[in-house]
């Protein structure tokens, strides 16, 4: 080797010139021991469901591919079922299912994304056959790509805003969207029956900018709201790149409008707004 200064053939060893290292005299430092790569974090693939329990506080393991709740009652403001989607193993398909559950007295189910839409192998979210009493379903920030989300068959009665985390945007709402971005994703809100005991609530409430891109869709259909001022209050709406925003076959027994556009909206690049 070019870095070898002296070879001792009797012991099969060599000494290196200054600046050369290791048994073979390489021009860089070589560790004495081999360090194997750090093992990947094991993913919890348990597909069992939490069934028929009452939960008042929760600690979720985000490094799971399946989260399933059937007939569970979430009670009180401490029972926030919060999913940080970008902390999940998005290289695998994710399945989050809540069926026949009850949220009451300020309990909430929340789905947090990130600053931008993360790559994913697909995220399936189902909230169905749900009873809500002064509770809310919340989506926040840019959700991962390829989300398939449905909130269906909800029976909601709202008389208080215990669930609301801040003091600026307090409203009685069934579904709340905070600066949500959907990328190559779909969000369906269907067959919701909701009543608010205090007027001026918004059935669905979007603060910040609601963005649909990459062929995404947001459908609200076959919903019935009573006691709300607006069925869907949207601050800023941006629909681009073959995406669809649609309100179809919804009714209000009282109130002002099905869709209230607070500020600006744009529908561009072969996208569609339907009502």
UniProtKB/TrEMBL annotation:
Residues 95-249 form the Dispersed gene family protein 1 beta-sheet domain. InterPro entries: DGF-1_b-sheet_dom. This is Dispersed gene family protein 1 (DGF-1), putative. It comes from Trypanosoma cruzi marinkellei. The lineage of its organism: Eukaryota, Discoba, Euglenozoa, Kinetoplastea, Metakinetoplastina.
């Amino acid at each position: 080797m070019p870095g070898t200064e002296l070879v001792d053939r009797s012991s099969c060893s060599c000494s290196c010139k200054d600046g050369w290292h290791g048994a073979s005299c390489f021009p860089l430092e070589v560790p004495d021991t081999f360090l194997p790569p750090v093992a990947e974090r094991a993913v919890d693939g348990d597909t069992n469901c939490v069934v028929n329990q009452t939960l008042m506080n929760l600690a979720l393991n985000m490094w799971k591919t399946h989260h399933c709740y059937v007939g569970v009652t979430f009670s009180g403001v401490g029972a926030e079922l919060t999913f940080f989607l970008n902390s999940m193993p998005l290289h695998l398909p994710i399945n989050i299912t809540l069926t026949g559950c009850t949220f009451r007295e300020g309990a909430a189910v929340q789905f947090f994304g990130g600053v931008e839409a993360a790559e994913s192998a697909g995220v399936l979210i189902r909230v169905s056959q749900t009873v809500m009493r002064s509770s809310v379903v919340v989506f926040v920030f840019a959700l991962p790509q390829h989300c398939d989300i449905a909130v269906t068959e909800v029976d909601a009665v709202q008389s208080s805003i215990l669930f609301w985390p801040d003091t600026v945007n307090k409203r009685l709402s069934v579904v709340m969207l905070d600066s949500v971005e959907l990328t190559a994703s779909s969000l369906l809100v269907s067959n919701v029956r909701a009543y608010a005991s205090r007027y001026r609530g918004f059935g669905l409430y979007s603060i910040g900018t609601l963005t649909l891109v990459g062929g995404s869709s947001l459908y609200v259909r076959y919903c019935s709201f009573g006691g709300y001022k607006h069925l869907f209050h949207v601050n800023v709406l941006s629909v681009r790149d073959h995406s669809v925003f649609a309100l179809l076959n919804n009714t209000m027994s009282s109130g002002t409008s099905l869709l209230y556009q607070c500020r600006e909206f744009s529908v561009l690049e072969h996208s569609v707004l339907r009502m």
